[in-house]
Amino acid sequence: MSADHSVTRDHGATRGRFVIRQGGKAAEPTHSVTTPTLVIADHTGVPDSLRGTGAGLALVAAARKDGFRVGPRGAFGNATRKKHSARADVFV
């Protein structure tokens, strides 16, 4: 199943997140900002209602579009990095 996802970005000086909201639920990877273009994704929360909809890949695409490289530290980020080689340029 696939859906169009609108991703918003909430960034501070040292912490941030990309967010997809749908049906009162939110999918979001939270991260630590290490440089202006490198973030360390430390947690990704995806509710069951958004699993399998492409929400996670939309979050990765948003990071790429905004010029970020991502150091994945959680299970989702590492699995995505390994499974989707076409997105390898986003991960460090």
Automatic annotation (TrEMBL):
<feature type="region of interest" description="Disordered">
    <location>
        <begin position="1"/>
        <end position="32"/>
    </location>
</feature>
<feature type="compositionally biased region" description="Basic and acidic residues">
    <location>
        <begin position="1"/>
        <end position="13"/>
    </location>
</feature>
<dbReference type="InterPro" id="IPR031165">
    <property type="entry name" value="GNAT_YJDJ"/>
</dbReference>
<feature type="domain" description="N-acetyltransferase">
    <location>
        <begin position="17"/>
        <end position="89"/>
    </location>
</feature>
<protein>
    <submittedName>
        <fullName>N-acetyltransferase</fullName>
    </submittedName>
</protein>
<dbReference type="Pfam" id="PF14542">
    <property type="entry name" value="Acetyltransf_CG"/>
</dbReference>
<dbReference type="InterPro" id="IPR016181">
    <property type="entry name" value="Acyl_CoA_acyltransferase"/>
</dbReference>
